[in-house]
Amino acid sequence: MHKVADVEVAKNIMDANAKLAHKNLHHLEDHDIFCIDFVGAIGSGKTALIEDIIDNVDEKIGVLAGDIISDFDADRIKSHNAPVVGLNTGTECHLDAHLVSHGLGDLPLDDIDYLFIENVGNLICPVDFELGSHMRIVVVSVTEGDDTVEKHPYIFQGSDLIIINKIDLADAVGASVDKMVADAKKLNPDVKVITTSLKEGIGLDEVIKAIEEHKAHIEHHHHHD
Fold first, then answer.
1. Which of 71, 135, 154, 200 gets the highest tally of CB atoms within 10 A of its CB?
2. pTM for this model (two decimals)
């Protein structure tokens, strides 16, 4: 009997979260902020990607970090003059809209153009939890194994940009980048898949361009509503 109740509870949580995510989005749009949710396992290179983007764009970026961000990471981001707020997820393996709404209160929203949310290092838990972002980017490293993409279909289907990172290590770990790209395209044919090696500076420009294109696309649609 209790199974039905569990499903009800889960549905109520999701509904409440989606409502709050919507509110977060409006709050961000009132401040003309474009928000990106970065998902990916620990070690995928999410933090490095965020830092590299901050270093290579002129816009002001704020960061909400849901991963157990070390002081080292936080200081690195702060050293780029980007305000960073850590969100403590406690035992949860994903961020939710409620935590994000709290984080927004701690950021100088009038002074930032972009908000980057670094989700918790996990490819399963964040799937259903909207945060109020305009875009979700999933980052996966070849070191996670070239079957990682096909094993986590939902996160790749629900993302707006897919990044296969650390391609410089593919041979060393015996991973096929082509397979990962093909798996990603099969799961999400409409979405751009970019292969990167942040260490060697490969693919970063493409990522920044894809973000700018997605932003322009969304703003274009907004003006026509």
1. 135
2. 0.93
